[in-house]
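Sample intake sheet
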Amino acid sequence: MTGFVFSEKPIRIERGEGAYVYDDGGNEFLDMGASYACVPLGHGHPAVDEAVTEQFETLTYVQASYPNSARTALYERLAGTAPGPVGKAWLCNSGTEANEAALKFARSATGNSKIVATMQGFHGRTMGSLATTWKNKYKEPYEPLIDGVEFVPYDDAEALSEAVDEDTAGVIVEPVQGEGGINPASAGYLRTAREVTEAAGAALIFDEVQTGLGRTGTLWNCEQAGVVPDILTSAKGLANGLPMGATLCRDWIAEDYGSHASTFSGGPVVSAAAEATVSTVVEDDLPAHAAAMGDYLRTELEASLGDEVREVRGEGLMVGVEVGRGANRALKELALNHGVLALPAGRTVVRLLPPLTVEEEHVDRVVEALEDVVG
């Protein structure tokens, strides 16, 4: 009997190269989900592989209280690429941990406890971040969760303004909802979030775990609206497949973050991988490539699928195809009949989060496959 606590798919992946993965029978699959956006450079990128191998040969692990060159290089790289003054970093192992830290930092720095979150939002599965996640199916088995969380409709500036008050510690929002169905927020909504949190002395938290690192056409999605948060969280593709998360914050948050730590915060190997990943994203101008390929992908999908789907939406290479309640069926057919791996976003949306390195030939293949599946 196999020992695991997880649902498994019927494809055993054994190898990856670029935009492709291969199962134990040697069958090729185009990875249009990038394993939930965790490999933005594609599988087996030489810059990351070289950085990890070199670091393994010198030092595998040292706790974060000891300075280390790999970790320091990552701190400097993150500070140099952060939007505006959000330059202080706390490192962890996942997106939910990054958001957990963000919520704690907001409460500690403001002295308040109320958190405002959005309907359909998803921020993770640990007890704090789970409390700010919308869907009950994720929460009910673990209740009671932390209290003091108020939900408001997404992209509703008036509702958000009414919810934020003098008791608010922070507002947490995804600039583009991922799990909620690939829903982009308007620039005006994000600007309102900035205005009302500043007026209340609350922290504005942007969850860029999925939208960051160039996926939506700029290094950080918030740059498109010209809005700088107090705290920004990142993870998923930060170390191109190795477990890494980061909570970036302004000085006023970092100066009063409380007492928070993690044993594996910024281990040398994952720090080396993350620094190589971020450097490659920046130096190869992958945000611009993602913008161009995203435009091509959405244009081709709209032209090919037309009235067969409800909507094609997204930004950059974060694209949702709303197919109705047949999303899981479509995903199964894509994988088994066309060798294309994609992701769900609820029961109605096929989510495409390919490596940022995809080219038109990859886009053409997934468009042709989707045309066959939903046409």
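Comment: The first helix runs from residue 34 to 37. The mean pLDDT is 96.
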